[in-house]
Each structure stands twice: as structure tokens, then as C-alpha cells.
Amino acid sequence: EQISSIEQLDAWREKVLLKQGAVSRCLTLCGGTGCRAYGCMEVMEAFKKELKKRGLARKVAVKTTGCHGFCERGPMVLVSPEGIFYEQISTKDVPEIVEKTLLANEIVDRLVYKDPNTGKPILKEIDIPFYRLQNRFLLGENLVVDPTSIEDYIAQGGYKALWKALTQMSPEQLIEEVKLSGLRGRGGGGFPTGRKWESCRKAEGLIKYVICNADEGDPGAYMDRSLLEGNPHKILEGMINGAYAIGAQQGYVYVRNEYPLAVTHTSQALKDARKCGFLGEDIFGSGFSFDVKITRGGGAFVCGESSALMASLEGRPGEPRAKYVHTVEKGLFNLPTNLNNVESWANVPMIILDGANRFAQMGTAGSKGTKIFSLVGKINNTGLVEVPMGMTLREIIFDIGGGIPDGKGFKAVQTGGPSGGCLPEHLLDLPVDFDELTKAGSMLGSGGMIVMDEENCMVDVARYFVTFLEEESCGKCTPCREGLRRMKDILTDVCEGRGKEDAVDQLERLSVAMKAASLCELGRTAANPVLTTIQYFRDEIETHIRKTKCPAFVCRKLVHYSVHAKKCTGCQACVRV
What pTM did the predictor assign? Predict the structure, then answer.
């Protein structure tokens, strides 16, 4: 049915809510990529079969949603309305959950979450520290919305912000609201979103484009993936509003080729949005027309850079161009183009519907709202966390993340993806926002956060990220191409016992040249892991060079073994190892 008025939209929402209220219980399974790998879809089918067998199919709803965030605990199921949280379930656990929890109102003790530090069982999801200490304005809907159902999104107030923008606001008013919110781009650059929209609207040209950058390539990062897989209509609604603001008629979702589930769910969302009249001609009878196409990425990390992405969209090699030519003036097909990443677009409907003040009240003076981080590495609670800007690293890593496993000591956290920096223990109380992390030599980036413990070698970590960036550099400009290659050679020498006394000086000189002369942000920020390692872990580098030792026992060529003659039994086990 084509929706052309707010009355129709509200009536549909009421109908959906009545339908959802007709069931007494709901079993919600995390259907993110990680939980699917653990077998959540098989668990869902087992629940459906068991409920049908016991005559409960009409009384208890079963649905899969997007990523719940607590990835290492999957497959997980949330029993509503009680909010009971069961973790790491299998098909064998299904009959017991139905028998005890749904029929007898009892808890299956062995499946509830237990605090890793105290061993205390926690029954409800809302009481688990990992969830309780977050502000899940975006990820929260992943727990209730079936990404393949437009009805679920409508039940959460979906497309109401679009109606408000198209019928009650001018494009200029919409841009002003986004400016007042203080929203900054979540893709890494942190440029004010409203200012970018304003520049694109003022740019000359009858044809304009909007693009959603879902080409997420940072190691360990999957924030955009989870949003696009779990709630594609939220991103589409943000894009349609942005297109109205700048005067675009066509949009693109440029999604990483390795994200097939995101492509499937977004394709379904596009189909349903067109059918309901939220995409296409004369949306809400406003005279505004807009549509979206999906394009799969070219497989290069550098295509996450705006101009390289647009070149790839045009069918050319994904290479960046000089920044003095602004994409808001000459972007895709040399026409004005506005590009934001998935998380940026997802924030737009809330800002329009609830007003800029609500968003602006969260965060810090220069970084508003919440930010989603992928918390991975040597951490007890691996997963996605959404917190207000300004929360400290210590709160994220130890209060939400549960600290370091096996009682080992914290050593560093790498923020901002491969071009971010490694921050030591004495900076754990640093507020996490765009400006503070930059001052410390790192960056917020798209939101990757990799935790390292005492068994990590920081020289080896720097070499890892430099190697990654060297392989992903497009090679178009000499400072990035040759600078990264030379950096990798120097760090490899240090890790293998050939490091020279002037190695640090050489790395610093290369960093200065790359920052000053590289064509795009990949090259200009590529030295961050090296520079922060020099700044905060210089003694570790010097130990490698001067003593040819690796304090963490990671660099194999610097670790030497010998046989204790008096204790040797001649078993030759050490020879085999």
C-alpha cells in the first residue's frame, strides 16, 4: 500500500502494534553475521518446531534481528517481556528453554550470563554491565527490529521523520537542524555534517547525488556492517532526508563486497520502501522524488576514501584525488555529491524527529551524540558498544568490556583503525571524542578499538598496521607508496635483530614527509601507529635495537632457547618444538 499521509502511517503503526501485542511472549534471537556463524538460524528453526509441537506457535513469537552487540556470547536469545538473557545456546537447549521458561516460568541456570570477575549470574539483559552502561540509541533498535520487515521499523516510529521533513520543513530548515545538533561525520574525518550538506546544496548543478559509504575495511571493525544488516530502513530514511536537504534525486549505497547479508537486507528494504511510497516519485505527495541503488565495493581498503569511492562507483580504479577539489562541488560524475557513512545517516531520523537539542545534549562540547565502537582484542567482553562521546577509555575497556582476560596487565589500546594510534595505560582516563584522541596522537576514526595486554609487542603491532596499509595503498603518490614500504623494512629489521641506532630518527623523518605530502588521508595518517609507538613505547623499541631482545617474547628471531644440561633427559621434545 502506498503511504501518502501521516494518518495512513499512524494507522499502519497502530495496526502493527496491535498485531505484536497479540502474542504473550517473544523470543528474539541475534541474527548478526557472527551469531549466524555460530548457528543461530538453526536455533530459530528449532524454536519454531518446538513451539508448534507444543501448541504455542500462536502465543509465542520467534524472530531474528540484527546484531545485539555482545558477539562472543552468541547465539543468544532474549525472552520478552521479562528480558531474560540466555547465551551460547544450541539446538539441544531449545526444548529445555520452552519447557522451563515458557511453560513453567523457571530459569535455565546454566544458560544465563555470569560475570567473568565475580561469577555472579545475571538473569536480565538490562542488568548485564556490558549493556547497562551503554546508551544504545542506534543499536537498541537492533534488538527489536527484524531487518527484513518494514512493519517492525514502522512500529518503532519509522519514516515519521521523513514525513516531518518533507511536509513541515524546508531544505534549509532541515540543514539548520542538523547543524544545531552538532553531528559530525562518523566515518573518521569528523567533518560537521550540516556544513557538508549546506555546501552541497549551494553547489551549482541541477543533478546531485547522495552516497552512503558502507565500505568498512578497518581490521576488527564491523559497526557499519551491523547497522546496515540490522536496521537498513534507518539508514535509508536518513539518506532520503539528506537528499531532500541538498536537492538530490539519486542515491547509492556503496557496500563492501564481503557483506552479503547487508546487501540482502538492504535490497529487501529498498523493495519494501518503494512499494510503500517512501522511495520513488512524489514521496508523501510532497513533489520530491528520490531513489537508491546498491553498488558492491571494489575490494580495496582505499575505496573507503570519498574520492576513491566515487571513482570506483564510476567504474574506474579506486584511486583518490587531490583534496582541493571538493566532492560536494565536483564528486560523482563530476557533479555535486554528499557522502556520509552508515552511522552518520542512521543518526539523522532521530535528530529530525526529536529535535537537535536531544542529540546535542549528549557528548562533549565538540563531539555530540553517541558513538559505536567495536571493542575487540585482549578483552573479556568482545562486541559492539554504543556510548556517549566523552566516556573514558577506562570506562569502556574495564567497566563495559570487563577488563583483560586471565588477570593479565593492560598494555595499550589502538583506536581509529589501522591509521590510528596506540595509547598506553596512563591515558586510560582520556575522554573518547574527536579532539582528545587527536591530541594524544591517535584518532577516533570509524570506531575500531583493539585492546592489547602485556603479551603484545608494540613494535610488532606497529609493523602489522604498517604492513596492512602498505598492501592497501593505491600506490598513486610516492610519499605513501614508498614511505610505507620503507617503514615496514625498518620495523622488520628492528623485529629481527638488525635494527640500527638511527631507526627511530628515520621513522620520524618518514612520518613528517608522509603527513606533509601524501595525496589522501590514508597516507597522511598512516604514520600514527608508528609515531605513537615511538612516543609512548620508545623504551621497547630501544630494547629491541640495543639488547636484541623482545620483552613480550613475540619477535621470534629475538627469542633464544638453550638446554639446561642438568635437567635434560634426552627426550628431544624441545627439538620437535
Answer: 0.93
